[in-house]
Structures are given as structure tokens and as C-alpha cells.
């Protein structure tokens, strides 16, 4: 017979059976608590790390925006169109422009990097932006204070006729150099152009307009592409710069007056309607093409020779040797080619071997009314003009057909193959761009094709090194913005 267990022995047996398992559960619970604690601490630290990283990222953005605000401040000061060092106070040096934004603060350093003898002013502009949390970012760029009459192959005030019609650039017009207009580019093109593109401005040069868009007419691609490439007609670079700050085109009147004063003090002054012959190293002036009573002056070498006509130049042509400035208070008519002695033959500006460094002759023609090419497109295929040309005044009336740089027979159909062209090697500055081809019938109409002359302009960069253009500032041009180490 089995002995009966007491309650004490049953309890002792239960404790022995389950005592070890109770300790294991307690250890497991403690391990879980420890793991949860470690995970919580990790999550807290991860949250702190993320918060720090987010703060750094936001701080970097705020610092970048502050640096951009500093650049905008510098650009706003540039609207004065005077050198930074001539501002009051001077803006050349360290921390010369400071300010705050809702995101931080900025300070701007400006260094003058202009070349001696160069009419333009050049600066390196560095803006340091600092966020509220102390993060610093820096942006740096280049600012060039350009000059009217020398910095551009073509600089125009208005691109419309006096009665409000658009003055178009066509397939027969192109410019090998920088172009800046205080108006809108008006482009027209024929169907035969490859891809419908318009080759107006050559590859690598600036094309800037104060307008926010380009007006297109004709069968062309409506995407603001107005550049051409010299060897690859399928390659089209960046769009023109739109919304550019206006250039000070009105300053050309002040330039003309300063040159007129120089001519009165140092040059030859005559009145009436005269004809001018450029004969290698001298200038001949007469009251008619057949008169023998002429004025002849030999050009002074290595300095400007001023000729002021208080009246009209009825015709000018010939070969320039030396440096000639021809000013007229009324119209200047170009009767035939005007060529530099050192830019002809093998050194033709339109030839494949042209070298501008070999050109030592210079000419400037300026008038407050118009400079007219007095040629007939039925009889000539091209007219070459080597000169910087400046027309400082507007048209006389809404019906005036001749203003700016223009062609007298701009509505006459040409003869022969292709469009007759006027080729200018120099610079062209006009208060209102003149008509070398026909004007459209209405404000937005396309002009009739194959009439008048096409216009080709090849930029002569030498004038920007001439002291005649010092202080003739037009506008700041800002380029090469990039982030740099703070």
C-alpha cells in the first residue's frame, strides 16, 4: 500500500518541479527589457542624428539663399552703370556689401581684375552667406562693366520702325560677335532653312535682349534658337539671354558730343555738304565730286585724326591708312567700299586666314541722324565697310525711312544670285536699328523677301582697347557664377 504524501511534501515537490523554470522566465524578461532599452536609446540617438543632419541641410540651404541675396544686392548696385570703386562708398574690397535676410546674413567681397588700357571694367564678386545656425556658403562670379560702341558687334535701342512695325532679322542677316538690344528680337525665316533655324548670331557670342521672349515669323522653329555654328549647321547652342538689364543706349549722344568737342579742338572742321575720299594715308574733302578746290590733310600716324563736318557727308569711300574719325552733324552717305589698308587681300576680314592682330588701321563714323549706304542692289552684290559706326539719334518722324545704319535702296529687288549684302567689319551702335532691307506692311507682317541688302557684321575687338571709349559705360554683364569654398 502506497504511502500518502503530506501537504508539505507536495509543496516541496512543486517547488522543486517549477522553481528553475520561474528563474528562466525572470531572466528572459530582463533580457527583453534590456533590448528594448538599447533599441530606445538607439532610436533616440538616430532621431538626434537625423535632426542634426536636417538642421545642417536646412542651414546649408539658408546660407546658399543668403549668398544669392548678396549677389542680387551687387547686381542691383550695378544698375548705376558706374565702376564699383566710383560708387559712394567704394564697393571694392572685403565686406563692401552686407545685409540680412529672413534666413541669415551675407557679406560681399569685390576685387578689381581689370586689365590696364582696357576700356571695360572687370571684377570678381564673392558673396558669403551665413545661416542663423552658423552654416556658411559662398558664391563667386564675374562682372564686366561693358562700354557702348566697343563691347558689342551690334547694340541697338529699338527694333521697330518709327510707325511701330517690327524690324526683322532674316536668313540673310548674321552677326559674328556679341549682340545686345534694348528691345525684342524679331526673326523671320524661309522654308528652305534646314530645320527652320535662323543663323543670326555666331557660335560662342552673347546675344542679349531686355525682352522676355523672341518674336518669330515665317517657317522657323519657335524655340528661341537664333545661333549658328561655322562648321556644323545642325548644332545649335544656348538660347539667347532674355530679360537682360537695359544698356545705356542714350549715352551715345554724350559720346558724340565729347568727340565733337575733341574735333573742334584738334581736328579739321568744315561746313556744308561735302564729299570725302580716303586716300591711303590722307583724307581729301571737296564740295562736289568734280571740284578741284579740295582740302587735303595727311593723317598723323598712331593718333586719331578728327574730321568734323557741320553738315552732310554726301559721299565717303576709299582706303583708310591710320586712324580716322569722321563726324557729321547730319547724314553720312557711304558711296562705295571703305577698307583698311591692313585688312585687305590675304587679310580680308571675311577670308579664312584673317588675323585681327595684323590690322593697324581704324575708323569711326558717327552721326546724330543716319549713316546711309548709298548703293543699288541691282548693280552690286556687296558693299564692304571697315569702321565703327554710331548713330545717336532717332528718326525725324513716323514716316521717316532713313535712320540708324540703313540702305537707301532697301526696298529694291536685287539682281544676280543670292541676296546682296552690306558687310561691316567693326562695331555698330544705333539708337534705333535702321533698315537695310524692306520694312513689313503691318506691325507683325513678314517683310517681302529678296529686297534691299542683307547685313553681315564682324566684330572688331580692338576698339575696347582704345582710350576713346573709356568711361563710355553701357551695362554690367554677369557671368561664371559658381559655388566656391567659403
Summarize the structure.
By secondary structure, the chain is of the alpha/beta class.
Order of helices and strands: HEEEEEEEEEEEEEHEEEEEEEEEEEEE
* Most strands sheet: 17 strands, mixed
Low-confidence stretches are 1-18, 51-55, 191-197
Portion of residues within helices? 10-25%
Number of helices: 2
Describe the structure.
The protein is of the alpha/beta class and 486 residues long. The protein folds into two domains: 66-148 and 478-484; 154-465, no CATH class. Helix content is 18%, strand content 36%. It contains two helices and 26 strands. It has helices at 7-78, 252-266, and strands spanning 93-100, 104-112, 121-131, 136-147, 154-158, 174-176, 179-181, 186-189, 201-202, 207-209, 215-218, 227-228, 241-242, 268-279, 282-286, 295-298, 304-320, 323-328, 332-340, 362-367, 370-373, 382-391, 404-407, 421-432, 454-459, 473-484. The protein has a 17-stranded mixed sheet that branches. A five-stranded antiparallel sheet has the order 1-2-3-4-26. Strands 8-11 form a two-stranded parallel sheet. A hairpin with a 4-residue loop joins strand 3 and strand 4. The chain is elongated, with a radius of gyration of 36 Å. The relative contact order is 0.13.
Primary descriptors:
2 domains; 17-stranded mixed β-sheet; five-stranded antiparallel β-sheet
Topology, element by element:
Blueprint: H1 7-78, E1 93-100, E2 104-112, E3 121-131, E4 136-147, E5 154-158, E6 174-176, E7 179-181, E8 186-189, E9 201-202, E10 207-209, E11 215-218, E12 227-228, E13 241-242, H2 252-266, E14 268-279, E15 282-286, E16 295-298, E17 304-320, E18 323-328, E19 332-340, E20 362-367, E21 370-373, E22 382-391, E23 404-407, E24 421-432, E25 454-459, E26 473-484
Parallel strand pairs: 5-7, 5-24, 6-25, 7-10, 8-11, 9-12, 10-13, 14-17, 17-18, 17-19, 18-20, 19-21, 20-22, 21-23, 22-24, 24-25
Antiparallel strand pairs: 1-2, 2-3, 3-4, 4-26, 14-15, 15-16
